[in-house]
């Protein structure tokens, strides 16, 4: 039996929790009272893409339930060991849009900075599970190169911090980076794509909020929540701190088989998000990354689910159904019959 004593996540700092992640499949299975028969395949898949789960996220997973929607997002499975030929290590061809270390520039007017190489949890469907973070984790000198790239391109008015997870960096590093971006006059918006407010809610510190509130940049945080059960009371309260600071909150989800591929799940998610001050933004079809084929939901089923949302929810609670297509000028909308029929929702 694994003997490991860790203070409860409620009583430690976010940095301490980040350093006490569950990384051993045997520990996760034991903690959640899951069958030992899952261990061998979990250990094999773990070698391809390491297990990382926070204590707070694990506390929301129902013990003994192999089909728990939160568990399915983090538990390595034998299904990851084989993939169809159409699944690749770089499904979005991001290597083609990597003009400087840490920079991905795919779309007009906005550029993405890889501001951290790690996440607090490793989502098993992550499209960057094979990304070369070693050459895209800039040193301070390389950060200056990335910032010069932005400063020299006046068409860029929005900088997106991504990763990894950008909130995995310290408050001090975040403040430095935000200040460096803010001195570039043609940049007006800062967008942060993050999962940490959900999987590591203690990361929402007063120092972080001060940095985002005091900058001249308009700040948008796009969280990544796939299921309403990911939002417990603590997550809800931390998200409300951001909302009260007048930071725009949006959510993007991935449609995942066995996680949220039902109308009731998606409706509940939209309503729960709005209760936290978050507007649903995107519902992504799965990016075809090697190791994630078992999460795929076919397009016809996705359209049917989206049509149900359109018929059930007010328009502001319906995320756009999209996919990412390499070399496209933007996210590509996925439409059903309602688009051609002039369907409207209010």
From TrEMBL:
[4Fe-4S] cluster binds at residues 119, 123, 126. GO terms for molecular function: 4 iron, 4 sulfur cluster binding; isomerase activity; metal ion binding. It catalyses: L-lysine = D-beta-lysine. This is L-lysine 2,3-aminomutase. The keyword Isomerase applies. Coiled coil: none annotated. InterPro entries: Aldolase_TIM (IPR013785), EpmB (IPR022462), Lys_aminomutase/Glu_NH3_mut (IPR003739), rSAM (IPR007197), rSAM_sf (IPR058240). Pfam families: Radical_SAM (PF04055). Residues 105-320 form the Radical SAM core domain. Keywords: 4Fe-4S, Iron, Iron-sulfur, Isomerase, Metal-binding, Pyridoxal phosphate, S-adenosyl-L-methionine. Its cofactor is pyridoxal 5'-phosphate; [4Fe-4S] cluster. The modification N6-(pyridoxal phosphate)lysine is found at residue 331. The keyword S-adenosyl-L-methionine applies. Belongs to the radical SAM superfamily. KamA family.
